[in-house]
Specification:
This protein is of the alpha+beta class. Helices cover 48% and strands 14% of the residues.
Length: 410
């Protein structure tokens, strides 16, 4: 695999469309949105990949609801599917903040591709890095970094936000567990080879019976349902994962039995920063695809950009996007540096999803009639934005989390 670290050295002369904001000053605390040299090179590299390899196919992939295999392969070749995986396991050995930058850059072009990278890095490989055994790491991390996609299987038809009410059962049978149940709306399921499945080993224990199992696609009894016909992020695979008497060895239990509920909470807290980065990139992408038209479109004898009302609307959107960026970057740097970040993760996801919805909707309106057609990507960004307020914790769940951090003087 061509490691991302190698491509970074070639990224200094990225395309002009990739925003550059770096600092050569070391030993000082930089502003949140000023990148160091490695971060800047990585951002440029991902930007170039997105512009050259993904952009020409965005509308076709959306139309047929399919991610091109060469683009999925390209994500691996660029080292974007195992960014935090240590080099000794075949990964890129990058810090968490670089993951966030990559997710943002991909989402500026296609949020569908971005979420593939997001789930792989912030949910699946994170779980392996934190709770898997050394044997599990040696077996699964190299393949996840180099050529195999993973899925995070928590949600079910009757338990979305109330995830701990899951009904998937794991019954012990000697040195194995027998899994039965159906997981719903699973991202990456269509092309995943590794599934992290949350199942309850003893329903009398309530949520303390929930355990995380590593399930291979090749295990007998594993099947994938038809793809969901979605409003947005259509090129991203979203399917049910059906488990019928799937025999999983004890050696495939991740972490400790009965601790799955803790693992799911912790990994989703991190994942929310990734979704916020996706929504941030989406909002920026909507602006990027719309602004040139505002300068070129003539109405009443002048460019519509010359109208102060239009300038004020765009200025407001730019301010919202920049505020979201600072919140996302702040949460990411807190997490990367081992500081408490749960509150900030919830805040940035809540805010970034709102900004993505508002800015993409405005972009459609600014484009007028053509904005309502597929001639521009604005309508796709608009459709893609809605999922941000739903997956990896609805916006109401984020508000519940934020409220828990309220401080009172008495």
């Amino acid at each position: 695999m061509a490691l991302l670290l190698r491509s970074l050295r070639l990224a200094r002369n990225g395309p002009g469309s990739c925003a550059r904001m770096s600092s050569q000053t070391e030993g000082i605390v930089r502003p949140l949105n000023v990148l160091n040299e490695d971060e800047q090179m990585m951002q440029d590299s991902v930007c170039r990949f997105a512009q050259e390899k993904i952009l020409p196919h965005v509308q076709d992939m959306d139309r047929i609801s399919t991610l091109r295999q060469d683009i999925l392969d390209g994500l691996f070749e660029q080292g974007l599917m195992g960014m935090e995986v240590p080099v000794e396991f075949g990964g890129s050995g990058m810090p968490f903040f670089s993951v966030v930058l990559a997710i943002e850059e991909l989402a500026k072009v296609d949020p569908s591709v971005s979420v593939v990278c997001d789930v792989q890095n912030t949910l699946v490989t994170t779980a392996f890095l934190q709770w898997s055994t050394e044997e599990q790491k040696k077996k699964y991390l190299p393949m996840l970094a180099q050529n195999k996609v993973g899925s995070f299987c928590l949600s079910e038809e009757s338990c979305g936000s109330d995830a701990f009410k899951l009904k998937t059962a794991a019954k012990q049978d000697g040195d194995d567990y027998i899994l039965n149940g159906t997981k719903m709306w699973i991202t990456n399921a269509g092309y995943a080879d590794v599934f992290l499945v949350f199942a309850n080993i003893d329903f009398s224990l309530g949520y303390k019976g929930i355990t995380c199992f590593i399930v291979d696609r090749t295990m007998p009894g594993v099947s994938i349902g038809p793809p969901e016909d979605k409003l947005g992020i259509r090129a991203s695979s979203t399917c049910s994962v059906i488990l019928e008497d799937v025999r999983v060895p004890k050696s495939n239990v991740m972490g400790k039995v009965g601790q799955g509920y803790k693992y799911s909470i912790q990994v989703l807290n991190e994942g929310r920063i990734g979704i916020a980065a996706q929504m941030l990139g989406l909002a920026q992408g909507a602006l990027d695809t719309t602004l040139p038209y505002l300068k070129d479109r003539q109405a009443f004898g002048r460019s519509i950009w010359e109208n102060q009302a239009m300038q004020h609307q765009v200025a407001e959107a730019m301010t919202q996007v920049e505020a979201a960026r600072l919140m996302v970057y702040n949460a990411a740097r807190l997490k990367e540096n081992g500081q408490p970040y749960v509150e900030k993760a919830a805040m940035c996801k809540y805010h970034a999803t709102q900004v993505a919805a508002q800015v993409s909707a405005r972009s459609v309106e600014w484009l007028g009639g053509v904005g309502y057609t597929k001639a521009f990507l604005a309508e796709k960004f608009y459709r893609d934005s809605k999922i941000g307020a739903i997956y990896e914790g609805t916006n109401n769940i984020q508000l519940d989390t934020i409220a828990k951090f309220a401080k009172f003087p008495w």
